[in-house]
Amino acid sequence: MVSPPRRWRPAWIWMAAVLLAGSAFAADDAIPLAPGTSVEGRLAAGEVEVYEASVAGDRRLVVAVEQRGIDVVVEARPSAGETLAADAPLYRQGPELLLLPPGAGSWRIALRSASPAVGPGAYRLTLDELSDADPARLAASSAMSAGGRHAHRGGAEALRLAAARYGEAVARWRQLGDRRLAGQALLAVAVLNRRLNEPRQALEGYREALELLRAAGDEAGEAVALNDLGFVHWQLGEHGRARSLLERAIERQRARGDRYGEAVARGNLCLVAHSEGRLRQAADCYRRALELVAGAGELEFEAAVHGSLGTAYLNLGESELARDSYLRALDLRRAAGDRGGEARALNNLAVLYRSLGEVQQAVLYYGQALEAFEEQGDLRWQARTLNNLGYAYYSLGELERARALLRQALPLRRRVVDRRGEAATSRNLGLVESGLGHHEVAAAHLRRALELSRARGDRRGTAAALIALGRERRRLGATVAAIDDFVQALIAAEESGDRGQRAEALHQIGDARLELGEASAAVLSLRAALEERRRIRDPAGQAETLTALAAAEERLGRPADALARIEEALEVIESLRAGIADPHLRATFSGVRRRAYELHLALLMKRHAAEPRGGFDRAALESSERARARTLLELLEEAGAGLRRGASPELAERRRRLLERLGLKAQRQLELLSAGASPDEARIAELELFAVLAELERVEAEIRRLNPSYAALTRPPPIAVAEIQQLLDGDDLLLEYALGEEKSFLWAVGRDSLQSFELPGRAAIEAAARRVYGQLST
Are both 505 and 594 inside the same structural domain? Predict the structure, then answer.
């Protein structure tokens, strides 16, 4: 399940405020601070600075903290009463304001980092006194303080309240002519709107904040506004605008000497390249962002970037580099004590192993991720992980277990209003129920997936649901209705530009028409599907369509054309070097291969019946031997036979990793071409694939040199009937069976003779064999 790049956000967004323990205020070394004075200091993750102040009469204290490279949580506790806390959504720059209630008394004020996994920074703390004699400034400070307190609480409702109070502060600071504080308050409103998934409103706020901060000469605030503007444009898919803004943000941060700020802006610029499919540039960009903060203790940021870098490597088909990056991200999350981030890193590792076909390892990581998400109470990620885990068990053929997990995921998807996720889980449930033979239930789930995808305008999801629903209708005997589903899927695929789905829809239309006896119409659709599958370099799909075309040509009374098609299908099957990682897809391809060989035998034996002296019965027996050899070869390959003698373990491991890379590179090429990649992108993908193939050939040549028997096991020469006959003595008779769905065949091979017989299909022969076995065993 190779997905699009996971959306990475600046590390700022993930910083969670940590409430101070009571003991922090009880420190004996609290620093006295008089109203009207300021103090500067430095703060590192895990450190707390405590100050003590007193206020007389009805005047009120305003605690103002200017953040300089670190996100500060401000807390204040009176000598008697509740603790107040504020944490503005301004990350590592800008003001934190906390307005204390009126009344004489003493206060202890504590400052600490909002995250335990960031580098050190500086701050400037100022205590100001306000009174009712300055109502405008008091009202502005009160609104700003309330916004920070609501933001500190977290949760959607609190964030909305925070946005409203910051909006009030914007108006009041403007009335006072303070463009900087108005700009910072507006920046907070924009950040909150983005966190509330209202990007268009966020854009308006960022643009206006940018103008105010620029006019006020606030270079740090201007750089943050440029970065956030670029990030939101990226979220909206407006990559050109995003790139321009992020490049300006990088320039501003570099000019200020803010390496962390530059790294964050660069990390977001990397996302633009990643989303555009410029994966090599994205990977280089992520590495540069990491260099900027190397050794600075920025564990959260490094973990986030390593996660994105791992995804870029996975998209490039570089499994080892992806694994290294994901493991590094996991280590950093654990070092930071970030349980939620740890869960996401575990999920990424599961996706990697799932892509490599190591489903048992993927299940292990999914299980660990799910446990962590449950601890965090993160329902959205719980639903996503349950869905992924369910699909993994589906791939392993454990359908009951898969269904149980998907049934847990579905109500969670609905609870968090994840319509896209609900559609995916409904579609997966349809596949599982179909595998269990519950076709009506499967169709109901698939109809729901279709409804959700259409409501979202998701053309790819719509096409996927329609194709799955059409297959289910065919199983229920409604082939005419199924064709309508496939035609609608074809339209959706053409609208989305997904050529892989277009090829699949065309194939299904042709196969369904063949089932209805409309062979001429079937040939037209299947030829179009074959052309598309050749264009997108889909060998497994080509073999499937060529087999269906051969059946259609045979129905039309064109045996020579049918035989040519099926032999082309077998050539594709035999030449397939990149393994199919997904166990379910691998099983599906095994079915395609079996049907191709069965049809080849049937066509050859039909030609033999028409031309008994044409040697077609011999060719059929040799084809049967090829099919058996191919099956045995795959079993030996899975067991690692042929590599245990002669070749070093290092060479065998190198070959295994190259096969992993080859599979991922082939999948990447298929995805690129399906999405309509440019000629340059297609050429680069093909060159990368050929480079891995060339390296694999060199490794296998060395293995063959060290272990001559390896060649005989992995590339056995086809055996001829004459060679079989030479192995027999004069009175020996070899009986070889080939069972097929509709017809089976038997060859009786003697040293100087060959006879062939047509038998009933597999089901009839297996039933007869069971009867005989039962009689013999009683």
Answer: yes
Predicted confidence (pLDDT) per residue in 759-770, tens digit: 999 899 989 888
Residues 146 and 194 in one domain: yes
4 by Cβ neighbours in 10 Å (0-12 / 13-18 / 19+) ranks as exposed
Report the CATH number at residue 513: 1.25.40.10
Evaluate whether residue 418 is within a structural domain.
Answer: no
Residue 749 has phi, psi (to 5 degrees) of -110, 120
CB 269, CB 246: distance < 8 Å? yes
The residue type at 3: S
- If 0-12 CB within 10 Å is exposed, 13-18 middle and 19+ buried, where does residue 715 land? exposed
Type of residue found at 607: R
Residues in the chain: 778
23 vs 304 pLDDT, higher one: 304
The Cα 698–Cα 181 span in angstroms is 66
Summarised one tens digit per residue, pLDDT across range 567-620 is: 999 888 877 654 555 555 556 666 778 888 889 999 999 999 999 999 999 999
**Residues 654 and 739 placed together within one structural domain of the fold:** no
What share of the chain in percent tops pLDDT 70?
A: 88
This prediction has a pTM of 0.75
Whether 96 and 151 map to the same domain: the answer is yes
Residue 681 near residue 277 (C-beta atoms within 8 A):
yes
Summarised one tens digit per residue, pLDDT across range 412-463 is 999 988 898 999 999 999 999 999 999 999 999 999 999 999 998 889 899 9
Is position 228 within any domain? Answer: no
Long-range contacts of the stretch 395-400 (C-beta < 8 A, 24+):
395/354, 395/359, 395/582, 395/583, 395/584, 396/359, 396/360, 396/363, 396/583, 397/583, 397/584, 397/587, 399/432, 399/435, 399/436, 400/436
Question: Pairing relation of β-strands 733-738 and 743-750?
Answer: antiparallel
Give 767 or 26, the one with higher predicted confidence.
Answer: 767
692 and 767 together in one domain: no
- Looking at the DSSP assignment, which residues form a beta bridge with residue 124? 40, 66
Interatomic CA distance for residues 344 and 733, integer angstroms: 63
State the Cα angle at 641 between 637 and 642, rounded to 5°. Answer: 105
Instruction: Report yes or no: 374 and 412 within 8 Å, Cβ to Cβ.
Output: no
Provide the 3-class DSSP secondary structure of residue 122. strand
Q: What six digits make up the tokens of 651?
A: 């060479």
Domain residue limits at 705 = 649-714
Contact yes or no for 654/699 (Cβ under 8 A): yes
Q: Closest by alpha carbon to 749, among 740, 760, 737, 739? A: 737
pLDDT of 696: 75
Within 10 A of 651 (CB to CB), how many other CB atoms are there?
A: 17
Sequence-distant (6+) residues with CB within 8 A of 462 are: 450, 453, 454, 488, 489, 492
- Residue 304: inside a domain: no
Last residue of a domain, one of 694, 714, 734: 714
Q: Are residues 693 and 739 in the same domain?
A: no
Number of domains the chain is built from: 4
Cα separations in angstroms, 676 against 42, 516, 663? 53, 33, 20
